[in-house]
User: What shape does this take?
Amino acid sequence: MTESRGLATAEAHIRAEAHQRTVACMRGHRAFWWVRQRNCNHSAFNGGHRTTSDYSEVVCGAPGCGRVWRTKAAYVRDLP
Assistant: This one.
């Protein structure tokens, strides 16, 4: 019983950690933000090919952050 509870706790921690990496970063880090994929995506569902999209993938390069998220917000056009 304890082992399965420990496993469930570990899985919850991993899910929370993954969610944190996909949530938009703090505005204080905005100087470190850059666009990895602008208005497109690459997916296994389309054979890994570039597909146009309304969304862009933004990365925070601030030390210790590394968050990545997708957005179709207007601020993306001002990012490098």
